[in-house]
Amino acid sequence: MGSRHFPNPYPDYDGQCSSPKQGRIPEALEQIIRGSIHKLLTVLNQGLADLPSDGDYTVYTGFAGQALLFHHLSSALGNQRKEEFLQRGISLLKPGLRHLKGKKYSFLGGDAGTLAVAAVIYSKLGLKSESKDCLKRLESISQHVSREDSSVCDELLFGRVGYIFSLLFVQKHLGQDCVDGKILLKVCDRVIKNGQKLAADEKWACPLMFTWHDKHYLGAAHGMAGILYMLMQVPDPGVRSRVEELVRPTIDFLMTLQFPSGNFPSSIGSASGDKLVHWCHGAPGWVYMFTLAYTLFEDEKYLSAARSCGQVVWERGLLKKGDGICHGSAGNAYVFLSLYRLTREEKYLYRACKFAEWCTNFENHATLQADRPFSLFEGIAGTIYFLADLLKPDQAKFPAFEL
Question: DSSP character for 171?
């Protein structure tokens, strides 16, 4: 198999080349980005008109993901079209809300994400009763997630920590009291107990270990980086103490698996080696865990690990899979925004701008058609989300992952 990435054609930041200043992207690039957003939104809306309304309702590849984009645009592009974007988002969610069965648990791949996004948009539209109904349905999913059940996984895309993000998401937008905080703690406790049991049973040299489909996945979507990062985002003091006790030494163990390039394997013992530089599998998904670990524990080794991840993303992050969020160039660009917010070093914002330039020239390097070309995590909805985020880099957050 040939290379999975394009050679990076851009010179790296040297302090002299055209660069952003004081947290703002260059004005010329801003105009290009706004034009690209307009163009891509036209393509997206045309594509959505042709999709069956009884199809995929998830955030990852379905209508809830596009609704999350329109929720984002309602603030990222100013207030002039706020109401329009929110109404567009809720119109995409309504068909799905009638079909959910409350048996899929995560924000990205389950009913919880659809309900969480709908609760927030309904609230912002002033429809409080509809919002509360979604929150009640979201809470009811916890009966499946918090109990000891080996059929429920712990990972982000389909499992328990994906449900944790759903609760954190609504708390961020609607306040801490919008859902029962005890539910969040019960689910966190179940995840931690599962991790402790597997680590003990398999005699790992770390306090926590997790599997998905019987493999010890490491990346953000299915593996350790995503699980540990989500636990670290829970603000409860009781969870924070267990993060210090259990999550930190587990991160220290995982750091020993980093390749010299800065990348990480997709799973422990993976035969594929240093290959994937995606958010879902590889260095891009690890940056968030390391930057938050540095913030919480104030140890330079975590920042150093994050920088190494960022370097391999700069070198190998312009992907032939497209400009999506999960395994595309737009998703990889968020690495630089995370590092920029933490370090305030202009080179990281410069690198994000260069990846944005790449994404605005999408027609010139489109080699593979995404399976779901209009979706948030595989398609152009994710590209639009990133480009809009770059207009306010200090506020940019990887969707459905960073809070």
Answer: H
